[in-house]
Structure formats: C-alpha cells, structure tokens
Amino acid sequence: MTFYSMMLFIHVSAAICLFIGFGIWLFGITAIAHAARVEQVRTLADVMLMVRLVVPVSALLVIVAGLTMTLTTWGLQTGWIAVALGSLIIIGPIGTWVIDPKVRAIAALAHMLPDGPLPATLVAHSRDSLLRLTMYMLIAMLFGIIFLMTTKPVFTSAIGAMVVFSFLGVVSGMLIVRARRAAPPDRLQQHEEAS
C-alpha cells in the first residue's frame, strides 16, 4: 500500500461521510418543512444536530487528503483540482455560517416550546427558503466536484461545470420551494385535525 493510495482512501471515505451528512441535513430540512407538530420538529432537528461535526470534519479530511495528493502527485497547476478545492472551500463556510446556525435555531426553539401544533414562529423557521435553497446548491456543488474528479477537465471547463452545477442546484431548490408554497394547505390541516 502506497502513501498515495492511503490518502485516496481517506479522501474518498471522507467524501462519502460528507455526502451522508448533507443527505441527513437535506432529509431533515425537507421533513421539518412538512411537520405539523412541535415534537416532530424537535426530533428531526436533533437528528440534524447529530451530524454537526461529521460535515466539517469530513470536509476538512477531504481537503487535507486531496491537497496532500495534489502536492505529492498532481501539482497545484492542475486546473480541475484548483476548482474542486476552491469549491470545497466555498461549501465549508456556507455550511458552517448559514445551515448550521439555522438548524440550531430551529432545534433551540423546538426545545423551548411544549408539544402540540406548530406556532407561527416555528413554522417560519422550519420553512426557511434560504435554508432549503442553500442545501440544494451545496449538494449540487458536491456532485459538481465528483464530476470534476471523474472527468478531470481543463481549468475553464472545470469552472464552467461548477457554475452549471451550482445553477442547477439553485434552480431545483427554487422550484421545490415554490411548489411547497403553492401546495394547498389541506393536507397539513387534515394532519393537524387528526392529531
């Protein structure tokens, strides 16, 4: 086993953990937006908080292992690597400064409230459009990085690919948010009446 293969193993394993963490966040955000009761939001927010350390630690390991492989084998002049590392450096702070504080705010509010139907304040937090748009954009960027790793395009094509993936993430997020807003509230009301 070579040093490069060990770094590659750490890099790929950390990327898998990063996807798992983002997947749990996306599931939680989606489920919270459909929740009708405080205890449902509380449980889902607690699950989301469980991956608070998984995402940044995984991102750090992806960057460190990727940078190590770059410096020892590929070289920093490799265009797709520079774009992939830059994209990861963008994803990290957005997850830390946008998603994590919003999830913590939802969890804190849900823990302060008694069980029962969602009050307006928790509804506003749990259906935050920026939170959902950000999640879709970041997940699309992660897929963009996987695309760069597998196709290894030149620098300009790599930038173009990341712009396209980011755009697709934002557009898909906007469509889902709009569809949620346009959906009739009948199902939510029926759920609340049955509870």
Query: Total strand count, please?
Result: 0
What is the radius of gyration computed over CA atoms, rounded to a whole number of angstroms?
A: 19 Å
What is the approximate shape?
elongated
**Proportion of strand residues:** under 5%
Profile the largest sheet: none
Class by helix and strand content? Answer: mainly alpha
Query: Quaternary status of these chains?
Result: single chain
- Work out the helix count: 8
Order of helices and strands: HHHHHHHH
Point out poorly predicted stretches.
186-195
Tell me the span between the first and last alpha carbons: 58 Å
Helix content: over 70%
Mean pLDDT: 89
Kindly describe this structure.
By secondary structure, this protein is mainly alpha-helical. It is elongated. It is built from eight helices and no strands.
Write the layout of secondary structure elements.
Blueprint: H1 3-34, H2 38-49, H3 54-74, H4 79-112, H5 120-126, H6 129-151, H7 155-182, H8 186-194
Outline:
This protein is mostly helical and 195 residues long. 85% of the residues lie in helices and 0% in strands. It has helices at residues 3-34, 38-49, 54-74, 79-112, 120-126, 129-151, 155-182, 186-194.
Based on the model shown, name its key terms.
mainly alpha; 195 residues; 85% helix; 8 helices; elongated
